[in-house]
Amino acid sequence: MEIHRVGVVGLGTMGAGIAQVSVQSGHETVGREISDELNDRAHSTIDRYLTRAVEKGRMTQADKDASIGRLTLTTSLEELADCGLVIEAIVEELEPKRELFAELERICPPDAILATNTSALSVSKIAEATKRPERVIGMHFFNPALVLPLVEIVRTEKSSDEALDAAYAWAERAGKKPVRCNDTPGFIVNRILIPLLNDCVRVLDEAGVSPEDLDKAMTNGAGWPMGPCALVDLVGIDIHVHASEALHQALGEDRMAPPKRLLDMQHEGKLGRKTGEGFFTY
Ligand code: 3HC
User: Fold this and answer.
1) 72, 131, 79: which is closest to 108 by C-alpha?
2) What is the C-alpha to C-alpha distance for residues 63 and 40, in angstroms, rounded to an integer?
3) How does DSSP classify residue 259?
4) DSSP state, 277?
5) pLDDT digit string, tens, across residues 103-124
6) Res. 163 pLDDT band, cuts 50 70 90
7) Distance between first and last Cα of the chain
């Protein structure tokens, strides 16, 4: 099955990045947010990164114009009616995702692939909200979606081979490095990374080190491309806390529970880069 038109629902950090990956790789793409303001914000983010690619000589102006020309933004889900693949990147909560998938099933063609970019929620529970769970899979991108190559292609017990293979092939055509995995808590990367980042945050207080020194230690001593505090700021404290809670609920290990320091930061609205303040200021 060849996918020509792609829908992306939710155009926050991840959704806007995924929409850009899609238009850059030649796919007509319909992005949907709940307000014109949020659509405008996503459009200017995508335009900014495309302009940067032109300035850096990675893309011609003509390719940029063609990419932007493939992007349609809407507030109406009905405009996803002829999409062969829809990738959901809305709030990390089960009920809104389940409601959305039931709507998508009503709107999209019967053979459309409905994919969730959830970080740590159960893809099966999302699929159960539809009458075609065989068309529902996970497609988990990594932040920044434009830069990081990995996409986890997540299989539930009911996902069809055909839907998984088509999504895998689409991700490869989009220039990504997909891997296949099962619908187990945190899939592959987050199962490892979330508790590891929680350990890093606990070390701050247990060992009395500053976020600057912790990051300096892990970049210079362990070869991380960025330090753990900078990474949690990039991912977003709220997203990280949600993923920690989902993993903790599913697997019950203490180190999966979000550290108090992160819960306090979330309470204070210090959510990382997106609010201008997290472990560091931006
Ligand atoms: N969006 C788009 N492009 C971005 C970007 C963003 N948010 N951040 C950086 N870039 C681009 C830069 O523009 C730059 O391109 P350029 O050649 O045009 O300048 C290029 O990426 C490299 O950026 P920098 O030179 O600023 O810095 P680095 O070389 O250190 O790379 C990084 C930045 C790619 C973020 C790198 O530090 C990195 O890979 N960090 C680890 C990120 C990571 O682990 N992400 C996974 C998080 S877990 C997750 O997402 C799962 C979720 O479910 C929680």
Assistant:
1) 79
2) 21
3) P
4) B
5) 999 999 999 999 999 998 999 9
6) very high
7) 44
User: Encoding tokens for residue 162?
Assistant: 């055909």
Question: Does the structure show a pLDDT above 80 at 2?
Answer: no
The residue behind tokens 């088509």 is: 166
Catalytic member of 25, 39, 159, 190 = 190
Catalytic residue among 119, 122, 159, 198: 119
Whether pTM exceeds 0.90: yes
Ligand 1 center–CA 29 separation, angstroms: 23
- State which H helix or E strand residue 22 sits in: helix 13-24
Query: What residue ranges line ligand 1, CB within 6 angstroms?
Result: 49, 52, 56, 119, 142-144, 146-148, 190, 193, 225-226, 231, 235, 239, 243
Which of the 8 DSSP states describes residue 124? Answer: H
Catalytic residue flag (residue 140):
yes
Map tokens 């990675």 to a residue.
58
pLDDT confidence of residue 258: 97
What is the Rg, in whole angstroms, of the alpha carbon atoms belonging to the chain? 19
Comparing CA positions, the residue from 137, 144, 145 lying closest to residue 169 is 137
Of 147, 239, 242, which is best to mutate to test ligand 1, by the most ligand atoms within 8 angstroms of its C-beta?
Answer: 147
Show the tokens assigned to 35: 């307000």
pLDDT, position 54: 97
